[in-house]
Amino acid sequence: RISNVFDSEDPIIIVPYRGYANTSRIYLKGRVLENEDIFKGKSRNELRNLVDSYKRFETDEIAFAKLRISLYEQHFELSTDEEGYFILDTDWSAPQRKDTHDWLEAKIELLQKSTVTEPTIRATAEIYFPSKNADYGIITDIDDTVLQSHVTSRFKLKMLYVTFLQDVSKRLPMEGVVALYQAFVKGADGKRENPIFYVSHSPWNIYDLLEQFLELQKLPKGPLFLRDFGLRPAGSFANHKMNTITRILESYPNLPFILLGDSAEKDTDFYLSLARKFPKQIKIIYIRKVKNNRNARRISKLIKDNSDINVCLANTSAEMIAHAKTNGILK
Length: 331
What we know:
With 331 residues, the chain is of the alpha/beta class. The protein contains eight helices and 16 strands. It is 27% helix and 27% strand. Helix 5 packs parallel to helix 6. The longest helix is centred in the last third of the chain and has 15 residues, at 237-251.
């Protein structure tokens, strides 16, 4: 159901997603919704998990709400679209930088009230400002690359079960991925602060679950980009990822990147396309082989046909680490 601020009978909340910035431009996305009071914390009750999953997708978004975003004495005003989303994608004046990366805090406030006495609705957004102390960046898929999502399960039944009924504390990471990503972020000498970005085909509706999962598993903190799931879904699987990753690469043109994905769907296809488009920026592509099926065999052939691009098709995280050491990414 779509509402505006004055139609809503329930409490309204601002839900910011982690953004990122460089020295001249800033990107931040979020949403304004009615508060569905979704349970936070561990739950062993599958019915409660199912109800909360329903609430995440049956959102009551606040359309055309006016917002102000404030950061380092700079103020930006914008409105949500008909699905309650807002996007700040604009030039800005960055603060003086240290050598370490920073999570900047932006203050967001709703500029409209239904009554004079109603308190102002506010939220705080985190914006990632990558460190100068970085050798490369990391861009990674999530489903079956970081998180065991079972995309290749028969009729996707196991994927649906773990997504809608299983508590986030019971979700499992892929084998060895936590140590692998921690090593990539620390770099070859163990002292780097390499930025990491998570890009998934999952909808923004489960952002809170994925954010909790990354934190619970002690995976490196980074911006998390999902796709729209509403009246006008934001393009196809490939388009969403291609557009998101292209924007990140263009934001940090002097930083090389490693890309990580899996053989469950088409990560390899568009990673290779990106490597052709950004040959100086794509350092290495890692593809986790999750199942020896027809698509995995297609991907194996695709990699052989593009042998001039540095791609590692690996069964385990240990194989990726060995490859990274050979290529000077890790020691």
